[in-house]
Amino acid sequence: MRTVVAVTERVAETPSTVTLRFPYPTAAVPGQFVMLWVPGDDELPMSLSYTDGPSKGVTVKAMGGTSRRVQSIRPGDRVGIRGPYGNHFDLSPKRVLIVSGGSGAAALAPAAGRSIAAGSSVTVALGATRAPELLFKERFRAMGAHVEVATDDGSEGAKGFVTAVADRLLQSESFDAVWTCGPEVMMKKVIAAAAPRSVPVFCSLERHMKCALGMCDACAIGPYHVCVDGPVFPAPRLENLSDFGTFHRDSSGRRVPL
Amino acid sequence: MAELAVRCAGVNLRNPFLLASGVWGESGESLAGAWSAGAGGVITKSIGSVPRPGYPNPTIEAYERWGLLNAMGLPNPGIDEYPREIEIARRAGATVIGSIFAGDPEEFARLAVRMAATGVVALELNLSCPHAEGFGTEVGGTPENVEKVVRAVAKAVTIPVIAKITPNTGDAAGLALAAQRGGASAVSAINTLRALAIDVHLRRPVLSHGLGGLSGPAIKPVGLACVWQIFEKVTIPVIGVGGIASAQDALEYVMAGARALEVGTQVTFDGIGVFGRLATDLSRLLDELGFARLEDAVGVAHRASSVPPE
């Protein structure tokens, strides 16, 4: 069920994120994820940041030990891939607002690409801690998306949270859908901002994952399993879940505050 | 429609299909979800004295629809945290059986008291996980140990105690008999078969732990043989587990001697809707074969004279 592939390309996207490209011809849809196995270390769920064509890619943010070791992978190194798993973004809406926090752009960029190629217009509210951490800003622009930026320290674009930019865009323009990926607290604010305008919001969730097959319960959130019921959830499914935006589960299954 | 409700180990079950331990069961909402999908009862993840993260990934290898190899490593939130999850499932009306694992009879007994206090209707003792150092099969691999653990737990609690038996020693019936001597109200058999997968490109085992346990349709004939042999040796009820994917699989286990059944791996292949489907299909199959109640079919394969005329 796993395919062992040699990594073909490594790109340092920002100071904290690295993209790895590898041959993996299995078809994928933006929003889906793969399980990436670093032999001898661990296996992690990763949104596909490149979904089109035979060469796929993931973009890894340095978090814990394993993600740092994933970043140290060099072209020629072998990794195991299984998937793609999970559902995906519905690419049919014609006017889309993307709200990305930090490395959330990894899951959103391929969705923007396919959507624009199919004739939709895409606006991106792109947030990061500081200017060098704005992931895929040029990639979004090269696709033809309109990109507005927010940074926590004000080093580029609006100073503060990207949700403020999203709120302003929702007030001034009309959208058929909002796609968002980033910290759950941010996505919660995006849902709140879109609610009065009745724009449907779709959130891509990241949770601790083990089997990715809907068996082990590691990624349970309310009645859902992110690996098979997600990772993309329409907002109404999340709004009443007490864990959304408040608790994660660690690898033992304990609920730990976000 | 044939009656599926059974009484097993002193517990009334609305149907015989229990959510097997280790599948879903880490969160209360998931247990509640399995119950509302039609499970006759739900068995929690095996809970230990302290939180345990389990092994690093890969923890699983799936084989089409015939098998699943896993070495999760008994991840669980620990008995201090876990009662809140049981409470969520109980509030949803679920019949909850608490699975526990420990390293020796004394720890088992202490944990059993705490698990019983959560309001579960019975305990299932994990004496059979094949891939956790110091637990599971390493504790429950001999009749002497099984008897000691079951006796310690049965003395410590008033609710029914179910011993989950390993197939990996070659004498499941001997272990089951020991559980009965120790005071078990029922035995469940089987847990996974010790198994291994190798990646030939990387020249290493796939699972981080190396050895794991195989579940799913591949192990059904093994489980059936164990249940068959156990049924001939013990007088307490037997709960059949291992590769149940259809009503026919279920009825094979029942005819071999099982009064109740556990379903786990098939949730991975079919989703949680498997519980509703199994119950409907089994009731229909019993009708077709002339059984008014599931109970009437328990162990019939042991009596050759029970073969009906054409």
Structure description:
The complex is a heterodimer of chains A (258) and B (310). Chain A has 258 residues and is of the alpha/beta class. Chain A has 2 domains: 3-85, Elongation Factor Tu (Ef-tu), domain 3 (Beta Barrel); 95-257, Nucleotide-binding domain of ferredoxin-NADP reductase (FNR) module (Rossmann fold). Helices cover 22% and strands 36% of the residues of chain A. Chain A has 7 helices and 18 strands. Chain A has a 7-stranded antiparallel β-sheet with strand order 1-7-4-5-6-3-2. In chain A, strands 11-10-9-8-12-13-16 form a 7-stranded mixed β-sheet, with helices on both faces. In chain A, strand 14 (220-221) and strand 15 form a beta hairpin. In chain A, helix 4 (162-172) runs parallel beside helix 5 (184-194). Chain B is α/β, with parallel strands linked by helices. Chain B has a single domain (6-306), classed as Aldolase class I (TIM Barrel, Alpha-Beta Barrel), CATH 3.20.20. In chain B, helix 1 links the parallel strand 3 (17-19) and strand 4 (41-43). In chain B, helix 1 runs parallel beside helix 2 (83-91), helix 3 (105-116) packs parallel to helix 5 (143-156) and helix 5 runs parallel beside helix 6 (172-182). The two termini of chain B are 22 Å apart. Classes of the chains: A alpha/beta (258), B alpha/beta (310). At the A-B interface, strand 5 of A face helix 1, strand 5 and helix 9 of B.
Short descriptors:
heterodimer; A: alpha/beta; Elongation Factor Tu (Ef-tu), domain 3; Rossmann fold; 2 domains; seven-stranded antiparallel sheet; seven-stranded mixed sheet; about 20% helix; globular; B: about 300 residues; alpha/beta; TIM Barrel; four-stranded antiparallel sheet; 10 helices; about 35% helix; about 20% strand
CATH level-1 class of the largest domain in chain A: Alpha Beta
Query: What overall geometry of chain A do the principal axes of the alpha carbons give?
Result: globular
Q: What CATH first level of chain B would be assigned?
A: Alpha Beta
Cα-atom radius of gyration of chain B: 18 Å
The strand line-up of the biggest sheet of chain B is: 3-4-7-8-9-10-15-16
Order of helices and strands of chain A: EEEEEEHEEHEHEEHEHEEEHEHEE
